[in-house]
Recover the amino acids of this structure.
């Protein structure tokens, strides 16, 4: 504007270049952070997984020996299988109950808003807090959960939850269900509220009953948020550690070790960092499949 | 006249509607109350157990309600090992540093992504979201080794870095979206006034995006206050423990036997900041969850 002819073009060029450079300058610190604290350690992780490094020293290059050991490590496969069963059992419970709560509280009346707020409270407290809270509630001596079940004549004697792997598994499932069921609920409420009310009114006019509307309209129309929430929830369960570390300590006889717990055990209890790194790489690859699905779904839902 | 009549008619219609609906409406209301009772009960009973006397809190079989009021459980947690103040202080300091890092990194990055025509910026965006795809549990081993070399084990900065890794992708995603929603005209006016890009960010964009900044800070606080595995691995000296590690150490106790009253007192202490912050800023939390938590 201020200059004319060729100099103006040059100024524009310079302006564009300056604009480009500024963009990088603003992104720079965050990019540097990710490179230094995520990508570089990831490279180190992969390198360490090819060595026999321990917390006390070592670090000889051993090629894929650690990975061959994983292949033969029945404890790891058992931990991975346990984690997958945990995920496959917990995820449908969380999604089903979360959806039921969403249906119950979807209208914005004061009572339903309050119900949503209270049902969501456990989501924001720490998983260590909730695990210790339930560790106490479930205790066979002093636990109120056992006392309540006895008082209601559901059981005759208090259940000793952490003595068998099956019971310990269900103890964790109960506590985590309480802890995160509100997460799905809130997302499903927003999904249902986003449906055009005219569509639902038309269905009511046509005489479709409540459960039929849920089955034929609400569930299909909230399919995408259901899928995304399922994936987020499943990834979380696949990476479970805190609740098992605190409530079961992997007991009895290591039967409640999850994948992350087994990695922690190898790296920071047995100090086998090389091997622990190889396990981490395998776990990362498994999670990447889930994450790729999640991103593909997100991109698709943004496109539509 | 006719207006009033119509109003009366509408009102009586509403009343009859309500009457007609009432059996199922009552059922729904009862279900809501039941849900609230089930979801609140563990927290309420934890609090009630924490104000029992130590002996009463360890009684078997237990009672639902306390017979006595006592703060001895809190007193014991207060003096546990390095002292409660030290653990709360550690947690707060780490959380504040994580919040500062998330805002300090995500606001400029979100601005760069939202307002500059940099080539390759979508690739940069994917790179910035990369920590979402790589479980941080896997990164803790190399980070521990690196941090041990430079003195960041048992350091607030080290743990704050781990918490920033966890929260940065969400923060950048949120800041980019909220900056993109700010009308371009506002920025163009500032450019004509000769305002530099940095000043446009700090004096125009950030004030206009306060809700997003609050959301970023809120998520960073709650995550950092509660995070367990990173703190377990990096903070292995008593004086460096954060609150979640304190909880586990209270259970272990001094002499092996679990002190149930103290355990619930420490659970209550760990939960209260989250509840207060969440209830005060609920709107921001839910909107953040909906805009970025799942994506």
């Amino acid at each position: 504007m201020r200059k004319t002819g060729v100099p103006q073009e040059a100024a524009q060029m310079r302006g564009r270049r300056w604009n480009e450079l500024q963009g990088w300058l603003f992104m720079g610190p965050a990019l540097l952070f990710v490179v230094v604290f995520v990508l570089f350690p990831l490279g180190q992780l992969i390198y360490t997984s090819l060595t026999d490094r321990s917390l006390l020293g070592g670090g000889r290059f051993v090629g894929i020996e650690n990975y061959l050991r994983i292949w033969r490590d029945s404890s790891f496969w058992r931990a991975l299988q346990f984690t997958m069963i945990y995920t496959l059992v917990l995820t449908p419970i969380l999604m089903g109950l979360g959806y039921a709560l969403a249906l119950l509280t979807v209208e914005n009346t004061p009572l339903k808003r309050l119900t949503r707020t209270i049902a969501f409270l456990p989501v924001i407290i720490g998983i260590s807090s909730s695990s210790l809270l339930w560790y106490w509630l479930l205790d066979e001596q002093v636990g109120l959960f056992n006392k309540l079940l006895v008082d209601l004549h559901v059981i005759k004697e208090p259940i000793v939850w952490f003595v068998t792997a099956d019971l310990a598994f269900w103890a964790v499932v109960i506590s985590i269900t309480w802890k995160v069921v509100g997460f799905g609920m809130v997302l499903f409420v927003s999904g249902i509220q986003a449906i055009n009310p005219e569509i639902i009114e038309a269905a009511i006019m046509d005489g479709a009953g409540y459960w039929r509307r849920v089955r034929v309209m609400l569930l299909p129309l909230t399919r995408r948020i259901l899928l995304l929430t399922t994936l987020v929830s499943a990834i979380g369960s696949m990476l479970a550690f805190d609740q098992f570390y605190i409530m079961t300590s992997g007991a009895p006889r290591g039967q409640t070790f999850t994948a992350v717990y087994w990695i922690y055990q190898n790296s920071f209890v047995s100090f086998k960092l090389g091997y622990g790194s190889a396990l981490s790489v395998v776990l990362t690859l498994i999670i990447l499949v889930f994450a790729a699905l999640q991103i593909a779904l997100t991109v698709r839902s943004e496109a539509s | 006249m006719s207006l009033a009549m119509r109003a009366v008619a509408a009102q009586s219609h509403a009343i009859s509607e309500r009457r007609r609906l009432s059996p199922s409406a009552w059922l729904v209301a009862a279900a809501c109350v039941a849900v609230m009772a089930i979801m609140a009960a563990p927290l309420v009973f934890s609090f009630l157990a924490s104000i029992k006397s130590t002996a009463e809190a360890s009684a078997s079989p237990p009672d639902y309600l306390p017979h006595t009021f006592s703060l001895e459980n809190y007193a014991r947690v207060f003096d546990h090992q390095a002292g409660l103040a030290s653990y709360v202080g550690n947690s707060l300091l780490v959380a504040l540093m994580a919040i500062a890092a998330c805002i300090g990194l995500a606001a400029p990055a979100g601005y760069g992504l939202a307002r500059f025509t940099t080539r390759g910026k979508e690739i940069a965006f994917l790179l910035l979201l990369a920590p979402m795809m790589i479980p941080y549990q896997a990164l803790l081993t190399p980070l521990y080794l690196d941090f041990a070399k430079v003195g960041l084990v048992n350091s607030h900065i080290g743990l704050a870095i781990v918490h920033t890794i966890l929260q940065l992708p969400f923060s950048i995603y949120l800041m980019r979206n909220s900056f993109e929603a700010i009308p371009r005209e506002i920025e163009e006016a500032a450019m004509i006034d000769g305002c530099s890009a940095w000043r446009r960010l700090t004096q125009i964009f950030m004030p206009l995006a306060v809700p997003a900044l609050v959301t970023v800070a809120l998520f960073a606080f709650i995550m950092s206050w509660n995070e367990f595995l990173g703190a377990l691995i990096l903070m292995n000296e008593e004086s460096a423990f954060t609150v979640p590690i304190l909880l586990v150490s209270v259970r272990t106790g001094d002499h092996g036997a679990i002190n149930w009253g103290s355990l619930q007192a420490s659970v209550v202490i760990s939960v209260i900041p989250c509840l207060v912050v969440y209830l005060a800023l609920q709107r921001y939390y839910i909107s953040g969850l909906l805009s970025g938590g799942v994506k």
About this structure: The radius of gyration of chain A is 26 Å. Chain A touches chain B through 88 residues (CB under 8 Å). Residues 1-36 of chain A form one domain.
